[in-house]
């Protein structure tokens, strides 16, 4: 399939005339064809107008039809075959197997939401029947359903060119909820974005959905992304990227006449806690597995294990030796963009030059576009004294904090900002010590995991990929898994509404009646 470099606005493929951008081959640093035209403010306005026109008809499509839509998108993405994988490998520098795996995850997410739509329980229908005889006052008839928020702006992420980009989790959950979507493509992978955008566009056409259900914009600067968030017809934002970028978009959203929610996933160092018995019994195995997780995908995962906490001593030294030995065998890997590579090198240099930080190990050096893994150590007092040591270095770099005892380790946990994940490595004999950490860890992170690492996020119903600020801008939500749909819905109550005016799902003869929560009782629950 030939790339055009055009914007996809409604049914039209239009040339953006507000500057141009090129993808860069991540491995060689050379420009890839074609040139992509940046959207003009008028083209942004056109996309927003179409999305707004599409909102009412699209949100009232039957959930089964939206399920067909998501499945059609999944099929169209798979039908792109090698053309998509080749372009995505070139633009991201990620290995082919990783991109094929990510494509599977993207398709799986779309199908997960399709299944959820067919089940219908995401609507959380509630009915409190009228009680006209109630004393002293009669109770009105109350019926509740969830409706979508409105058109959603999605910012594609650099580190997941498929699973968190044009047809990624934010788009899938917003479309499932009934929200039209306008994607601002990440400039690191415009070709991948166009291919996937056309797969969505084809599904919109084939299912005869409203024209503005989906649009894809390229931005040759920051103006169009910022204008998108500021536009009054946009009602929510999904973002994955830097803290500075997420905070800038949050500020724009908050300054609007009508502020809107921004679901921004920003930065996380994902602490790994090594408990004493586990460290004593298997320091080498944990150290080796840690090095593998640290370097996966050149460390460019939001769940990358960037911080390790343990009690100082021989067992921690065994862990460090094993991790160092493993790092020495893991080749440097191409990073996503020159900018991300530069930021990584600067972060590593800053840790290496810190007076209170020791360089424990470096991985093999690579080419000018590759990230060389780095393992550093410090002590808890130094870590607590300098907030800069708590910042994410995006890439395969980690800091090990040597603690005097578990009480000091707990003090370090209490000093951390919100996190996506916290990993506990423990044996049975560590359970009492670990239990004492759990309240603090629950306050800290969106996901607590045992004897593993946060990389490799399962997409399911019980997954949480979120956490308190700055891991995400709204710790009440998740951007992975079926619960992600809740970000784009809000409840509406219908009081004493005649059956002829009620939405079909709340009518007395509704086929979804079996899923109603009546008088607060879950369906199927007696008593
Ligand atoms: P980014 O710079 O935050 O960019 C993400 C998207 O937001 C891009 O489309 C970008 O547009 C846009 N954007 C950023 N700042 C903006 C602003 N002020 N106004 C309007 N739009 C804005 O993230 P990135 O390019 O993916 O990577 C840069 C750094 O982000 C990395 O080095 C890493 O530190 C961090 N990062 C973190 C995670 C994580 O999950 N924790 C994931 C990815 C990246 P333009 O590119 O066109 O400016």
TrEMBL record:
Enzyme class: oxidoreductase
EC identifiers of the protein: 1.2.1.26
Domain (Aldehyde dehydrogenase): residue spans on this chain: 21-458
Pfam families linked: Aldedh (PF00171)
Record keywords, A-Z: Oxidoreductase
The reaction(s) this protein catalyses: 2,5-dioxopentanoate + NADP(+) + H2O = 2-oxoglutarate + NADPH + 2 H(+); 2,5-dioxopentanoate + NAD(+) + H2O = 2-oxoglutarate + NADH + 2 H(+)
MF GO annotations: 2,5-dioxovalerate dehydrogenase (NADP+) activity
Family of this protein: Belongs to the aldehyde dehydrogenase family.
PANTHER family: ALDEHYDE DEHYDROGENASE-RELATED, SUCCINATE-SEMIALDEHYDE DEHYDROGENASE, MITOCHONDRIAL
Name of the featured protein: 2,5-dioxovalerate dehydrogenase
């Amino acid at each position: 399939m030939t790339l055009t470099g055009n914007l996809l606005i409604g049914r039209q493929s239009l040339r953006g005339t507000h500057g141009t951008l090129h993808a860069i081959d991540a491995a060689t640093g050379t420009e890839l064809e074609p040139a992509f035209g940046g959207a003009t403010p008028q083209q942004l306005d056109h996309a927003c107008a179409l999305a707004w026109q599409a909102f009412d008809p699209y949100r009232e499509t039957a959930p089964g039809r939206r399920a067909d839509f998501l499945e059609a998108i999944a099929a169209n993405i798979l039908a792109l075959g090698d053309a998509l994988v080749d372009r995505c490998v070139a633009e991201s520098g990620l290995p082919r197997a990783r991109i094929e795996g990510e494509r599977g995850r993207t398709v799986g997410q779309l199908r997960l939401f399709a299944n959820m739509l067919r089940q219908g329980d995401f609507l959380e229908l509630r009915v409190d029947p009228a009680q006209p005889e109630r004393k002293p006052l009669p109770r009105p008839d109350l019926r509740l359903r969830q409706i979508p928020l409105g058109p959603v702006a999605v910012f594609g992420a650099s580190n997941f060119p498929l699973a968190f980009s044009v047809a990624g989790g934010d788009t899938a959950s917003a479309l499932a909820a009934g929200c039209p979507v306008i994607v601002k493509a990440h400039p690191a992978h415009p070709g991948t974005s166009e291919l996937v955008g056309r797969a969505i566009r084809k599904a919109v056409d084939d299912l005869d959905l409203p024209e503005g259900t989906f649009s894809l914009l390229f931005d040759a600067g920051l103006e169009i992304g910022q204008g998108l968030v500021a536009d009054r017809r946009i009602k929510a934002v999904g973002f994955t990227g830097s803290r500075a970028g997420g905070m800038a978009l949050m500020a724009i959203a908050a300054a609007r006449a009508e502020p809107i929610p921004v679901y921004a996933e920003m930065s996380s160092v994902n602490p790994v806690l090594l408990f004493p018995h586990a460290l004593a019994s298997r320091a080498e195995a944990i150290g080796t597995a840690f090095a593998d997780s640290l370097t996966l995908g050149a460390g460019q995962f939001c769940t990358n294990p960037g911080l390790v906490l343990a009690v100082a001593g021989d067992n921690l030294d065994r862990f460090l030796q094993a991790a160092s030995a493993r790092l020495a065998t893991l080749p440097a890997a191409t990073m996503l963009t020159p900018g991300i590579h530069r930021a990584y090198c600067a972060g590593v240099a800053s840790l290496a030059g810190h007076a209170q930080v020791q360089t424990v190990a470096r991985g093999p050096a690579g080419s000018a576009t590759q990230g060389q893994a780095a393992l550093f150590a410090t002590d808890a007092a130094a870590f607590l004294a300098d907030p800069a040591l708590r910042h994410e270095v995006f890439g395969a770099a980690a800091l090990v904090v040597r603690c005097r005892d578990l009480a000091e380790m707990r003090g370090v946990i209490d000093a951390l900002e919100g996190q996506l994940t916290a990993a506990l490595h423990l044996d049975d004999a560590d359970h009492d010590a670990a239990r004492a950490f759990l309240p603090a860890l629950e306050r800290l992170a969106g996901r607590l995991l045992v004897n593993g690492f946060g990389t490799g996020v399962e997409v399911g119903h019980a997954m949480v990929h979120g956490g308190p600020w700055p891991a995400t801008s709204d710790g009440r939500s998740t951007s992975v898994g079926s619960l992600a749909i809740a970000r784009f819905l809000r409840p509406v109550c219908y009081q004493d509404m005649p059956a002829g005016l009620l939405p079909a799902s709340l009518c007395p003869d509704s086929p979804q009646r079996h899923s109603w929560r009546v008088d607060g009782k879950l369906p199927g629950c007696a008593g």
